[in-house]
Design a protein that fits this description.
13-stranded mixed beta sheet; 38% strand; 2 helices; elongated; three-stranded mixed beta sheet; 485 residues
Length: 485
């Protein structure tokens, strides 16, 4: 038994030149913007629902850190082994494991800037020339002097101010049995739940950088359809710079109804509210070396579920789906056989090695901006070809201003399985007592089996349903000569 404690403090910057988003804080322009909106309101947005909440909040001498620390990272560990008899052992264990979280991440909005060059106005005559590309000068970073008003009307990428450190609970129980001399069988049940994982929008993937758009059009306004593209008087005139889209005399109804209407985009990165679940049976058969043979064979049957991606920006929680790492079956075999040919003579010394892997295909990411037309996406083995990997009638383009209800993945649509064998044949010949020569031939993907890549899943694409790439390498043969002394 044991327990571990982790304390991870967020970053600081030497001159406090970093910022974060002030959630729930009214922006200073709200009163003026609301007064302007009251003069030209739209029926879809009552005056009491008009708000401009949030803005950049800068680090101070008293609050220097990029985020508040999670101080609850206690992780207990427990392990157990019990010998039933001389040939059987029971094993079990449990542990809570904390990952790092983005303690090093912070935004520096307000302390950096870029000045775009206007090349042309009419696509014919140059507006600015190379000898003087920025006639109006360079845009200087505003710093912290404008407070919550800083960079209004522009796009922001922010990090969470505080959330739970990603962690997982793992448990395992199994039996280890000596079947016969030099042969051991082990069977384990392994379970895991991962909490506070990074979430993102559909299409962001489940690994790597996870980002979620939190400036969006609420779902209740989608039935407005074309009305969303109409323009109305802009209440932000004079409050947001006029050279920005949100500072012009008119604004679209869609922008006015969006969350955080006073910025052009707001993306939060590494928001830790996702979950994942894993359950698996793992078996291992091990033969120790005897009679010129040794091998290791494993088989895993598992299932993984995750909640890590939002189907629609306004969804209250990530959707539940088959996990990115879900492969129901995986079998591996690695063996060595010292061929009993000419043993003890110069004709002996032959060795054959085999590594074989079979693994079910991964569940494919279902198409963006599509819906299920009501038919099964899966085709039978005799119907599936590289030109039609799945039932292409299953998906149709999603109409504009329509919520997505198609899951991120489904067990009915998977990529091609891994079915690979690597072989090697080696001949070792002793030349003298201290010198030996080995000649070997190695074959990777020995039977030259093709593993196909993922099919095209975009209903509007010309290659929709087709596989146009190979996921593995063709057979490769490698010859080696080694002199040992």
């Amino acid at each position: 038994m044991g327990i571990r404690y982790d304390l991870k403090l967020a970053s600081t910057e030497r001159f406090n030149n970093m910022s974060r988003w002030a959630f729930g804080t009214p922006n200073p322009i709200e009163d003026a913007a609301r007064a302007a909106y009251a003069r030209s309101p739209i029926p879809e947005l009552p005056l009491n629902r008009f708000s401009t909440t949030g803005g950049l909040l800068f680090a101070t001498r008293e609050g220097r850190r990029a985020a508040r620390a999670d101080r609850n990272d206690w992780s207990p560990r427990l392990g157990l082994a019990f010998r039933v008899n001389d040939k059987t052992v029971l094993r079990a264990g449990y542990g809570l494991f904390f990952d790092y979280w983005s303690v090093g991440d912070f935004s520096s909005d307000g302390f950096s800037s870029s000045t775009p060059m206007l090349a042309t106005i009419d696509d014919v005559r140059p507006a600015n020339v190379l000898s003087n590309p920025f006639p109006n000068g360079l845009l200087a970073p505003p710093g912290r002097s404008q407070g919550l008003r800083t960079l209004l009307g522009t796009a922001f990428q922010i990090f969470q101010n505080q959330d739970r450190t990603p962690y997982n609970s793992r448990w395992q129980a199994g039996v280890q049995r000596e079947v016969m001399r030099d042969l051991r069988l082990e069977v384990n049940y392994v379970g895991e739940t991962a909490q506070s994982l990074f979430v993102g929008n559909r299409g962001g993937g489940s690994g790597g950088e996870m980002s979620r758009t939190i400036r969006f059009l609420p779902q209740e306004y989608l039935p407005l359809g074309a009305r969303l593209q109409a323009t109305v008087p802009n209440p932000f005139v004079g409050l947001i710079p006029s050279d920005l889209a949100l500072g012009r005399p008119t604004i679209s109804v869609q922008n006015l109804l969006a969350t955080y209407p006073h910025v052009s985009d707001l993306v939060i990165r590494r928001q830790s509210s996702g979950r994942s679940y894993y359950h698996g049976m793992q078996t291992t058969l091990t033969k120790r070396y005897s009679h010129g043979v040794q091998f290791l064979a494993t088989y895993t049957f598992q299932r993984q579920i995750e909640r890590m991606q939002y189907l629609n920006d306004g969804d209250p929680a990530p959707s539940k789906t088959i996990g990115a790492l879900w492969t129901p079956h995986r079998f591996t075999f690695a063996g060595v056989w010292e061929i009993p040919f000419g043993r003890g003579t110069r004709l002996g010394g032959w060795q054959l090695n085999l590594v074989h892997t079979f693994q079910s295909g991964f569940a494919l990411l279902l198409p963006d901006n599509a819906y299920n037309a009501g038919t099964d996406v899966r085709l039978g083995p005799s119907e599936r070809t590289v030109d039609r990997w799945f039932n292409t009638a299953a998906f149709r383009p999603l109409p504009a201003f329509t919520l997505r209800d198609l899951s991120v993945r489904t067990a009915r649509l998977r990529g091609d399985a891994i079915h690979n064998s690597d072989l090697s044949l080696a001949k070792t010949t002793p030349i003298t007592e201290r010198v030996g020569l080995q000649i070997r031939c190695e074959l990777f993907n020995a039977f030259n089996r093709a593993q196909f890549g993922a099919p095209n899943l975009t209903p509007t694409a010309g290659a929709y349903g087709r596989i146009t790439a190979q996921a593995n390498a063709p057979r490769a043969v490698q010859l080696g000569l080694r002199l040992s002394f």
